[in-house]
Write a structure and sequence with these properties.
mainly alpha, MetI-like fold, 9 helices, 0% strand, flat
């Protein structure tokens, strides 16, 4: 126990990057995913195809590969977005990846809303904006919240991948301590931290589901 208390503050030093990656991804990927989902169901066939390819590629390749591509691949073809700063590239890869997953979740929610409701809204004189804000998206959020919650939990665990670009989040720090001291205790501490984070988020999601709960 004394050893755990000794290494615990060191591991906690990496929580800033872990929480930062989680927060930035969630804040940016949700609205981006919503916009992409609208493109996936729009009447323009070309746009549907473009966004369809986007979601297919981003969901069909590993997030780790996408991180390497934006950090090593883009500069290799002359695209310098953030210089040699690593964290913005991590954010970019995470946001693009999770936006694709959120987009497919939102798309299924949009398509689950009965067409009759759209027709009734048009007959009542609702504009497209009003119909989306007052009728379509409130139902989409209610229908997709459990699936969104699952992705949010996955996002918490995926933040451990940022170590691959040399960033000192909690997993990388635990690995360094474990190699130095030849013990698995740091990994156990990190496991408990992830469990605590996911427990809190799960509880918050349950509260959100209760608030928007509806009956079929």
């Amino acid at each position: 126990m004394a050893y755990v208390l000794q290494i615990f503050p060191q591991i906690l030093d990496g929580l800033g990057i872990t929480f930062g990656t989680f927060a930035v991804t969630l804040i940016l990927a949700l609205p981006l995913g919503a916009l992409i989902s609208l493109g996936r169901v729009c009447k323009n066939r070309a746009l549907r195809s473009v966004f369809g390819v986007y979601t297919w590629v981003l969901r069909g390749t590993p997030l780790l590969l996408q991180m390497f591509f934006v950090f090593f691949g883009l500069p290799a073809i002359g695209v310098q977005l953030f210089g040699r700063m690593r964290l913005p590239y991590v954010y970019l890869a995470f946001v693009l990846n999770y936006a694709a997953y959120f987009a497919e979740i939102f798309r299924s929610g949009i398509q689950s809303v009965e067409k009759g409701q759209r027709e009734a809204a048009r007959l009542l004189g609702f504009s497209g904006w009003q119909m989306n804000v007052k009728i379509i998206w409130p139902q989409v959020i209610k229908k997709t919240l459990p699936s969104l919650g699952n992705e949010v939990i996955t996002l918490v665990k995926d933040t451990s991948l940022v170590y691959a670009l040399g960033l000192s989040e909690i997993f990388k720090i635990a690995r360094s301590i474990s190699t130095r001291d030849v013990t698995i205790a740091p990994y156990l501490v990190v496991g408990v931290i992830y469990l605590a984070i996911t427990a809190v988020i799960t509880q918050l999601l349950k509260m959100a589901e209760k608030k928007v709960y509806y009956e079929e």
